[in-house]
Every structure is written in C-alpha cells, then in structure tokens.
Amino acid sequence: MSDVLTGAWPVEAIRAAEHEVMAHVPPGALMRRAAAGLARRCVEVLDRVYGTPVVLLVGKGDNGGDALYAGAALARRGAVVRAIAGVQDERVHRAGLTALRAAGGRLVELEDVRERPALVVDGLLGIGGRGGLRPDSARLAVAAEQWRAQGSVVVAVDLPSGVDADTGEVAGAAVTADVTVAFGSLKAGLLVGEGAVRAGLVEVVDIGLSFPAEPLARLVTADAVARWWPRPGPSDDKYTRGVVGIAAGSEQYPGAAVLGTGGALSGPSGYVRYAGAARDAVRTAHPEVVSATSVADAGRVQAWVVGSGLGTDDEAEDAVRQVLATDLPVLLDADGLTIVAREPALVREREAPTVLTPHDREYARLAGDVGPDRIDAARRAARELGVTVLLKGYRTVIAGPDDAPVYVVKAGVPELATAGTGDVLSGVIGSLLAGGVPPAEAAAAGAFVHGTAGRLAAEAGPVVASRVLDHLPAAVQRTIR
Ligand SMILES: NC(=O)C1=CN([C@@H]2O[C@H](COP(=O)(O)OP(=O)(O)OC[C@H]3O[C@@H](n4cnc5c(N)ncnc54)[C@H](OP(=O)(O)O)[C@@H]3O)[C@@H](O)[C@H]2O)[C@@H](O)CC1
Ligand SMILES: Nc1ncnc2c1ncn2[C@@H]1O[C@H](COP(=O)(O)OP(=O)(O)O)[C@@H](O)[C@H]1O
Ligand SMILES: [K+]
C-alpha cells in the first residue's frame, strides 16, 4: 500500500510537496487531478447524477476551486449544480467558476436554494484554514448540517471545513461530512479528535505528492499488524514464544483478572501466568492459565501487565513496584496509572519498554488535561515520562518517547465504551510484549485486534467486555492471516 494512503503529513509538509510537484507539471494540473477524484467520489454517493440537485459551498481559496471544478464535471453529466459562496461572490476561484458556468451551473445565494440538495460539496476551507470558521462560512456550515439532518449526503473537499488539519480540533461551527476526499495524503486532523468524527469515511486521492520526511501519524492497517505479529516456528516451545504475567484484579474485582488473562490468551505468547487474589475466578474461566497469589511467586515471565482492578492500597502498590523494578517490558493500566501518577519516577527511571494505557481521566492524573490535540497530548506524556503512551478513545493514539510518527488505530467502534474492555486490551498487548514485539507496535497491534473484536461483537449484538473476548480469536485470525 502506498505510504500516502496511510501516512498523515502536517500541512507544512503537504505545501512543500505540492510546490515540488507543481514545478514539474502544467499549471492547474494538481487541481484537475484533485477535482477529478472528487467528482468520481461524488458520482459514487449519488443514486443517479442526471437531474439531481447538488449544492457546492465555496470558499475563497483553492479548496473552493476544487469544488467548482468537480461541480462542473457533475453539471456536464446533467446534475443541477448551484454554488453558494462563503465569501463575497467575486472572491471565489475565477477559473473554477467559469468552468462551472460553462457547464450550466450557477452561483446563487443560500436563500435562493428552494429544493433540498441530494449532495452538498463542502469546499469552504481546506488546509489554508486558520482558527474557527468566520461568520459567512459558519452560516453555510450550519446550512449543511441542516440539510444533512434531512437526508442530504455531505462530501467534504480535502477536509471538513472548520476542522484543524493537523490536530482535528474544532473551534466553533464546522461541517460534518459523510465522506471526505483528501488530496495527496491523509491529514492527522482526519484521524483523531473531533475531526475524525466530522470526516466520516475518509478516502485519499493520490495526486502524485511525495514526502521526504516521516509523517506526523500513521494509520495502522491489518497488513502492518500481520507483519508485526509473531508466529510460532518449528523449533518454538511455549517458553520461547514468550510468557506473559498478569498482575491484575483482586477479590473485589476478579473480572479484571479474568478479562486480562483472557485477552492475553489470544495474543502470540505461549504461556499466560496470573499473579494475584483472583486466582479462583481465573482458573474457572481459563484452565490454561497458571496462577500464583503474588508477583514474587509467579515465576519467570518475559513481560508484565499490571494495574487494573488492583485497587490502590499498599498491597497493590507493592505489586506495581515489584513489576516496575524488573528489567522486563511492562504494561501499566488503570490503578497502576494512579499509583504511578503519584510517583512518576517509578516509570521514568525504567530502561525496559513501558507502555501506559490511559483513558482521558487517567491521562489527566498523569499529565494534565488531554485537550483538543490528542496526538500532541500522547507525545507530550510519552516524552515527559520516557514511556510509550496509548491514549484510548474513539481513535486510539500511540506515541513513543522518541520523535517517531504516532500510530492511530481506527478499528474500534463506540460500543467498546463499556466496563472491562480496557482489561481485555491490556492482556493482548502484554502478550505481544512477551512475544518480543517493540512497545509502540505491540500497543498498535493490540489496539487493532481489540478494536476489530469490538466491531465483530457489535455486529453480533450488545457489546460487553466478555463478548469482546469471545470475538478476539476471530479478530486475530482475520487480521493476520
Ligand atoms: N496541497 C495540494 O497539493 C493541493 C491542494 N488543493 C486544494 O487546495 C486547498 C488549499 O487551498 P488554499 O491554500 O487556497 O486554502 P483554502 O483552505 O482553500 O482557503 C484558504 C482561504 O480561506 C481563508 N480563510 C482562512 N481561514 C479561514 C476561516 N477560519 N474562515 C473563513 N475563511 C478562512 C483565507 O483567506 P484570508 O485569511 O486571507 O482572508 C484563505 O484565502 C487544499 O485544501 C485542497 O483542497 C488541490 O486543489 C490540489 C493540490
Ligand atoms: N467512543 C469510543 N469509540 C471507540 N472505542 C472506544 C470509545 N470509548 C472507549 N473506547 C475503547 O474502549 C476501551 C475502554 O477502555 P477503558 O476505558 O480502560 O475501560 P475499562 O477500564 O472499563 O476496561 C478502550 O480500548 C477504548 O479505546
Ligand atoms: K472543505
């Protein structure tokens, strides 16, 4: 798969790549490529083109130009195309407007549109946008929202207007799209935060841009996970495949232990050990897990998962300290994060891979408010603590302590927002760590199969964590085969 389909470069890099290509192609060629891809996608979302009412929302920049050229292509196929300017009329892309008019389209005022359009093309603002939408554009974004609520399909040009291209932040009004057609490469703002919600289905039209430097973010694909996922070879035994230790759960919260060990059993390691007070529950649920009552008695492992359902009393703190004192990879979750938030040196001083898996409230305890820029938030905490941070949510963001691109996982579904699914996730990632996968890739691969299991579970019925567990083997199978 081409890099531009999975990498998200910052606006600055996209501009530089654009200039590089423009030096070698005729003027307007890039915009024509972009508009052709956009028009193709617009045709796909319509039942038919001939006679269909289409509204273009047009800003003063090239984003509006793309919309006008695509609108001209639709008008040539018989669509009834009306453009509405989000700025004073004379400031829209000249050549684009000429093309639209030549094809029979017209520039009108919002008030002149009597019939609800089947398709709204959002060309108000692309990567040239700064700050929240100004009032004239915001008014059209609101109109697009209203049409969409009544059944119109909204296609965003490059980026839903009002979304920050690099962060996904939305300040004020913004367009919500069913489909976003992104040019040249993804943008981080289409993958994370509010932008991910606004973008709908995202499709990249390759217009020939190439990038010398690493992207800001990479979308995790099944192919990548399949490459990272260890497979047993003829000379392997259960130990060489890696032993993962789960120190989670308590008498009060046995579920965390059952779900964590269950998650680990679908990972690539050959052996799952449990250490803690929920032995009986684990033994009943998973006879293949070998258990002990404490970390000290658990025997050798190649990676630890510690924290969820442990509580934060002295005993819990002891378990966390013991695990963190090893030179093994450790995944820290839930109560483990609370304990580390009180004493960050516990992880800062570690040399071995350490993965923290906070949701937003846990993150706040560790590093302050997540804020609207989730990529920056994950990076900031990872750098400050010298760890790998997996920030949970609608989109999961994984950042290492270095400057490598962050991973974004979009495999999940909102139904995963139910108690205990995080415990399942921690077990899968722990197993990958025990199998020798580097921390960021282990976290990304774990989140991908976990998200896929959540989707499969949601397709089968209401989602609870044990049903996510039930669907994990199938999720792994379809990802890595
Ligand atoms: N990269 C590529 O290779 C290719 C890129 N292409 C396309 O070009 C697009 C980028 O075009 P662009 O540079 O003209 O910027 P764009 O986003 O249309 O608008 C910027 C204008 O809007 C204004 N404005 C700013 N903020 C605002 C706000 N909050 N609310 C309201 N207005 C605001 C600002 O005006 P000013 O601030 O000066 O008043 C400025 O003039 C890109 O997204 C893609 O669609 C393709 O055609 C082909 C290849
Ligand atoms: N809105 C959402 N869309 C998709 N996935 C979500 C959403 N909310 C939460 N999740 C996922 O569900 C899991 C919840 O984990 P967590 O909050 O730790 O739950 P628990 O502590 O109860 O196990 C994470 O994998 C997270 O990414
Ligand atoms: K747009």
UniProtKB/TrEMBL annotation:
Annotated function: Bifunctional enzyme that catalyzes the epimerization of the S- and R-forms of NAD(P)HX and the dehydration of the S-form of NAD(P)HX at the expense of ADP, which is converted to AMP. This allows the repair of both epimers of NAD(P)HX, a damaged form of NAD(P)H that is a result of enzymatic or heat-dependent hydration.
Coiled coil ranges: none
Required cofactor(s): Mg(2+); K(+)
Subunit-structure text: Homotetramer.
Binding site for K(+): 63, 122, 161
UniProt organism field: Cryptosporangium japonicum
Pfam family, one: Carb_kinase
Protein's recorded name: Bifunctional NAD(P)H-hydrate repair enzyme
Catalytic activity as recorded in UniProt: (6S)-NADHX + ADP = AMP + phosphate + NADH + H(+); (6S)-NADPHX + ADP = AMP + phosphate + NADPH + H(+); (6R)-NADPHX = (6S)-NADPHX; (6R)-NADHX = (6S)-NADHX
Key words of the record: ATP-binding, Isomerase, Lyase, Metal-binding, Multifunctional enzyme, NAD, NADP, Nucleotide-binding, Potassium
Cofactor-binding details, from the entry: Binds 1 potassium ion per subunit.
Domain of life: Bacteria
Gene name in the database record: nnrE
All copies of domain YjeF C-terminal, residue ranges: 221-479
Entry-linked HAMAP family: NADHX_dehydratase (MF_01965), NADHX_epimerase (MF_01966)
Similarity comment: family membership: In the N-terminal section; belongs to the NnrE/AIBP family.
Domain YjeF N-terminal: 14-215
Residue numbers binding (6S)-NADPHX: 62-66, 126-132, 158, 256, 309, 359, 423
InterPro entries per UniProt: Carbohydrate_kinase_pred_CS, CARKD, Nnr, Ribokinase-like, YjeF_N_dom, YjeF_N_dom_sf
List of residues binding AMP: 392-396, 422
